Amino acid sequence: MSSNWSPQETPSQILTEKTFFQGCIVMGVGYGCVVALTGMCLHSLWRCRTTRGMTSTRSLFFLAYVSIIFVLGSISFATNTAFEQLAFVDYRNFPGGPVAFQRNMHYIPINVASDISFVLANMCAESLLIWRCMVIFKDSRAVFRVAVTFFSSLLFAGSLGMGILWLIETSSSSEILFKTKKRVSYIVPFFFIASLVLNTIVSSLIAGRLIFLRRRLTSVAGQALGSHYTNSAALVVESASLYTVFSLLFLIPFAAGSPIANAFLQIMGEVQIIAPLLIIYRVLEGKAWSEKTAFSPRRISDESSLHLRRLPTARVTAEDLIETHSVPEVQVTIDVSKGAI
Q1: Positive or negative CA dihedral for 243, 244, 247, 249?
Q2: Which domain of life is it from (predicted)?
């Protein structure tokens, strides 16, 4: 094709525009996953209500959480797409191109709505992650429970504070994310760093605890039961490692000044919703670690026992034993279904 049809921009500007555009497309794929997972969670929730007798309070909580986080993901996707349309279609001739439009016009209402939904979804996801961490550490020693709860809450407060500062920053009419003549804004990277630190630490705590529990379960009930709640899929889902990986995929190129970070920034809005939906789906399907599956060594020793059940007794003489070469039948059953978890 003729090069005369290309925009009169530098290769660097064109590359940056490509990453923004491609990020918007990949975000659509992520939203499709959110829609599918939401449907799966609602279907599983309905089955729990009708066949498993889930309590009304618990079912309403999951219904409200799934609905809220789905609405936030929908708002984020719709507003981000609309903002991209303004930059690449409606105001294509903005001085400096679409990238300059996004950098300088971020304070318009449609983009502020996108940022608000992003931060709120992030808070919901981190809250669920901390809750899962408290559930998994519920049967640990009191000092560990208190330390994990306090430290996680402290990290959450820091992430929440940075999120609020980001919303204040993005609603102003000054350029963000990049250096300006007046100042350099560190709010946005600090927000993602705070979120990454929280997710990394809490995810590591969850994964480490699950590995520890798997060893304990395996030693008591065997490999099959030991890996039911703590297999590789459980470690990835329960620890929300998906969001941690995408946070690194954004922050590393961002720190290096690469425009590739723009693509991962947009998809993170949906990935942070996919991670908690996966956790909820495992909880509803009974595959996730819960309060009922928490255990302690004392509980195992009390409940996991060897039960001997003798069949109805009958009189057997010594002569009978010699003639038939048989002994009274004894049925042995090992019941670890209670104590193992």
Answers
A1: negative
A2: Eukaryota
3-state secondary structure of 197: helix
Q: Are 234 and 288 in contact (CB under 8 A)?
A: yes
Lowest-confidence pick of 35-39, 81-85, 176-180: 176-180
The residue whose two tokens read 């608000």 is 116
- Rounded Cα distance, 226 and 220, in Å: 8
Q: What are the extents of the domains in the chain?
A: 9-294, 300-335
Q: What is the pTM of this model?
A: 0.77
Task: For residue 121, count other CB atoms closer than 10 A to its CB.
Answer: 25
Per-residue CA distances from 28 to 76, 124, 288 (Å): 11, 21, 28
What the block records as the tokens of 234 is 């459980």
Helices within the chain (DSSP H only): 11-51, 56-85, 97-104, 109-136, 142-170, 187-221, 223-226, 232-238, 241-255, 261-284, 297-303, 318-324
**Sorting pLDDT into bands at 50, 70 and 90, what band is 119?**
very high
CA-to-CA distance for 192 and 247, rounded, in angstroms?
A: 7
Average pLDDT over residues 224-232: 55
Q: What is the pLDDT of residue 339?
A: 41
Residue predicted with more confidence, 31 or 299: 31
Q: Give the pLDDT confidence score for residue 120 in this predicted structure.
A: 94
> Contacts for 85-89 with beta carbons within 8 Å, 24 or more apart?
86/110, 87/20, 88/17, 88/21
Place of tokens 């279904």: 337
